[in-house]
């Protein structure tokens, strides 16, 4: 049997490559009816904001303020946070449109499967698995030293929770981190509404602590005259370049808002609430970051900030030692909320991949009582707890960013594809194929023979499939299963789609080369400027072409319509692709070596399991409009 999926418009290509580019259909009524248990729709806008803010504001802000101000931005750290927030908003706009059009669990994995193809979707899902698992373990490890401050130090923790060193292996185990992961796992298994309530409480405490920093710090600043801004070096001690370098570092403090989209199937009104939840959460995070950084860099000179505990040390320098406990409370609640956000999103990624057959169906089971994917949640919690217990995953922190940045990039590419070349062919569900086959058995041997050939060899072109379906329709006479006529795209529309597809391809290639050259310090300046100049010209030409040609009319009816639409296309998605690709490449060779090993493991899993168990394996593709008629006739 050959894998198929005619996404090439009738072109014949090697079956292995075909499986990488086949795309699934946006979930619809006839797809949902195939037996998947549904998640509970209980989340409101308030819940989404709490999840988004909690997953985004980790303890990093309590450390990044000192490090970035000392080494990169100085007092201009506030502007660095603003620029990074605007850059994160580009991805948020793309996510908002995709979440409205494709409201199913899976986040960027789901969107890339619909718009790009199975191969890229698998890589995105595999990268997100790595991100959430390692991210959750790293966050759990960070909670222990912060909690220890309430006991008077790590040595004063109860023996059962204190870190211990295994002499033979030299491994420092952290029982407290593992216990916290298991507690959060149990909480997530109780139900989505209960989890979101806890997230809301914990996030409220964290936000209250940040408000305390802003108010108390502002009072001290006005009382003492904001000494941090009265420096001979001025507001930009490291120049404009330093400010932008600081933006690149603090950008990662905005990672986490995409966790909101993983709960799309649990939102009461996703088309209205998801864009609001994503936008408001990101806006709150940006405002809090900017005001906290403004206050802290104004209270003391930037070079006097402690790189490890900047906020606590600033208040201590003003004689407010008691404020350390309040700030530590904020750090602990921020870490706990971030841990909950990671372990909330991960099971839903596994569930979405299992639904599509790329992972065992074990992960797609939804508990009938709590209406959450308990098996996926428990599996995620156990793996994260083991990592947090045995491993110091701080050295793997860079790998966490790969999943998010890769997801941000594919989301932006998906928006361009959706607008200019939305999928115009969809796979027939297995139930409808069986319905067609059984219907054709009622007629002559010619139809049966044609039916057998198509269903056993679906790698033929959509034109052949359409002829086959027409034959069945003609044989059905008075009660045709499908309509006989197939609307044909005119030649101009096909030409426009080809131009748009190649332009998007060249845009992505140009962005990659431009980002690689810009971040390659080993290249000579002349070569770097030359390559960047050529690629910049290519990007400009691609944007001009996409601006001049019309967007596809099919975008108005693709997926679930009536929700949020991303503005400033193609410029906004192109800028999003450029920023995230540059940050991806800039993560360093060591990080990419580790990630490559993880991707190689994923490729083996896909080749030996995912590809052959995919729900699109041996799928038959037909034009979208024709498929609608088929489903309608079949239901009648």
TrEMBL record:
<dbReference type="GO" id="GO:0015171">
    <property type="term" value="F:amino acid transmembrane transporter activity"/>
</dbReference>
<feature type="transmembrane region" description="Helical">
    <location>
        <begin position="278"/>
        <end position="302"/>
    </location>
</feature>
<feature type="transmembrane region" description="Helical">
    <location>
        <begin position="166"/>
        <end position="189"/>
    </location>
</feature>
<dbReference type="Pfam" id="PF13906">
    <property type="entry name" value="AA_permease_C"/>
</dbReference>
<keyword id="KW-1133">Transmembrane helix</keyword>
<feature type="domain" description="Cationic amino acid transporter C-terminal">
    <location>
        <begin position="564"/>
        <end position="614"/>
    </location>
</feature>
<feature type="transmembrane region" description="Helical">
    <location>
        <begin position="372"/>
        <end position="390"/>
    </location>
</feature>
<comment type="similarity">
    <text>Belongs to the amino acid-polyamine-organocation (APC) superfamily. Cationic amino acid transporter (CAT) (TC 2.A.3.3) family.</text>
</comment>
<feature type="transmembrane region" description="Helical">
    <location>
        <begin position="75"/>
        <end position="96"/>
    </location>
</feature>
<feature type="transmembrane region" description="Helical">
    <location>
        <begin position="322"/>
        <end position="345"/>
    </location>
</feature>
<protein>
    <submittedName>
        <fullName>Cationic amino acid transporter 4, vacuolar-like</fullName>
    </submittedName>
</protein>
<feature type="transmembrane region" description="Helical">
    <location>
        <begin position="108"/>
        <end position="129"/>
    </location>
</feature>
<dbReference type="Pfam" id="PF13520">
    <property type="entry name" value="AA_permease_2"/>
</dbReference>
<feature type="transmembrane region" description="Helical">
    <location>
        <begin position="48"/>
        <end position="69"/>
    </location>
</feature>
<dbReference type="InterPro" id="IPR029485">
    <property type="entry name" value="CAT_C"/>
</dbReference>
<feature type="transmembrane region" description="Helical">
    <location>
        <begin position="201"/>
        <end position="222"/>
    </location>
</feature>
<dbReference type="InterPro" id="IPR002293">
    <property type="entry name" value="AA/rel_permease1"/>
</dbReference>
<feature type="transmembrane region" description="Helical">
    <location>
        <begin position="234"/>
        <end position="257"/>
    </location>
</feature>
<feature type="transmembrane region" description="Helical">
    <location>
        <begin position="561"/>
        <end position="585"/>
    </location>
</feature>
<keyword id="KW-0812">Transmembrane</keyword>
<feature type="transmembrane region" description="Helical">
    <location>
        <begin position="499"/>
        <end position="520"/>
    </location>
</feature>
<keyword id="KW-0472">Membrane</keyword>
<feature type="transmembrane region" description="Helical">
    <location>
        <begin position="591"/>
        <end position="609"/>
    </location>
</feature>
<feature type="transmembrane region" description="Helical">
    <location>
        <begin position="526"/>
        <end position="549"/>
    </location>
</feature>
<feature type="transmembrane region" description="Helical">
    <location>
        <begin position="396"/>
        <end position="421"/>
    </location>
</feature>
<dbReference type="GO" id="GO:0016020">
    <property type="term" value="C:membrane"/>
</dbReference>
């Amino acid at each position: 049997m050959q894998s198929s999926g005619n996404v090439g418009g009738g072109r014949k290509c090697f079956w292995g490559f075909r499986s990488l580019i086949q795309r699934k259909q946006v979930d619809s009524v006839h797809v949902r009816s195939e037996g998947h248990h549904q998640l509970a729709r209980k989340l409101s806008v308030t819940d989404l904001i709490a999840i988004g803010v909690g997953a985004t504001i980790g303890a990093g802000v309590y450390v990044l303020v000192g490090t970035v101000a000392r080494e990169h931005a100085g007092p201009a750290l506030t502007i660095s946070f603003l620029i990074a927030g605007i850059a994160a908003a580009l991805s948020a706009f793309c996510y908002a449109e995709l979440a409205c059009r494709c409201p199913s669990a899976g986040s960027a994995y789901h969107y890339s499967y619909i718009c790009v193809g199975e191969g890229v979707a698998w890589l995105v899902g595999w990268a997100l698995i790595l991100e959430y698992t390692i991210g959750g373990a790293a966050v759990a490890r960070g909670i222990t030293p912060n909690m220890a401050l309430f006991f008077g130090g790590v040595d004063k923790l109860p023996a059962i929770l204190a870190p211990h060193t295994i002499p033979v292996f030299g491994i420092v185990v952290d029982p407290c981190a593992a216990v916290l992961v298991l507690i959060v796992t149990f909480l997530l298994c109780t139900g989505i509404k209960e989890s979101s309530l806890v997230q809301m409480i914990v996030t409220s405490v964290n936000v209250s602590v940040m408000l305390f920093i802003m108010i108390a710090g502002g009072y001290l600043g006005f009382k003492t005259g904001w000494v941090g801004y009265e420096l001979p070096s001025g507001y930009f001690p490291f120049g404009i370049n330093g400010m932008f370098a600081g933006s690149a570092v603090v950008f990662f403090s905005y990672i986490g808002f995409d966790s909101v989209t993983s709960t799309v199937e649990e939102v009461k009104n996703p088309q209205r609430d998801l864009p609001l939840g994503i936008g408001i959460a990101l806006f709150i995070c940006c405002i809090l970051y900017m005001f906290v950084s403004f206050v802290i860099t104004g209270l003391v000179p930037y070079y006097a900030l402690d790189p490890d505990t900047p906020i606590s040390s600033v208040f201590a320098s003003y004689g407010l030692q008691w404020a350390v406990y309040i700030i530590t409370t904020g750090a602990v609640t921020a870490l706990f909320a971030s841990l909950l956000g990671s372990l909330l999103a991960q099971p839903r990624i596994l569930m979405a991949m299992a639904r599509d057959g790329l992972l065992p169906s074990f992960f797609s089971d939804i508990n009938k009582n709590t209406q959450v994917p308990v098996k996926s949640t428990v599996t995620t919690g156990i793996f994260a707890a083991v990592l947090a217990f045995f491993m110091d995953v701080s050295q793997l922190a860079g790998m966490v960013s790969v999943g998010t940045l890769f997801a941000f990039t594919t989301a932006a590419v998906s928006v361009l594809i959706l607008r200019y070349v939305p999928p115009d062919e969809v796979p027939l569900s297995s139930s409808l194929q069986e319905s067609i086959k059984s219907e054709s058995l009622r007629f002559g041997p010619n139809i049966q023979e044609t039916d057998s050939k198509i269903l056993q060899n679906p790698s033929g072109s959509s034109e052949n499939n359409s002829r086959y379906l027409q034959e069945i329709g003609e044989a059905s006479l008075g009660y045709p299963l499908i309509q006989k006529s197939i609307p044909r795209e005119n030649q101009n529309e096909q030409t426009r789609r080809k131009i748009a597809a190649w332009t998007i391809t060249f845009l992505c290639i140009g962005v990659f080369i431009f980002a690689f050259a810009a971040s390659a310090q080993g290249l000579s300046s002349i070569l770097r400027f030359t390559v960047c100049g050529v690629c910049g010209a290519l990007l400009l030409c691609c944007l001009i072409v996409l601006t001049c040609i019309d967007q596809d009319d099919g975008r108005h009816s693709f997926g679930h319509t009536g929700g949020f639409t991303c503005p400033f296309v193609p410029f906004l998605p192109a800028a999003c692709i450029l920023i995230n690709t540059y940050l991806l490449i800039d993560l360093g060779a060591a990080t990419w070596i580790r990630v490559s090993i993880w991707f190689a493991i994923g490729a083996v899993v896909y080749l030996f399991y995912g590809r052959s168990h995919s729900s699109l394996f041996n799928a038959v593709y037909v034009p979208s409009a024709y498929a609608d008629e088929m489903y309608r006739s079949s239901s009648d």
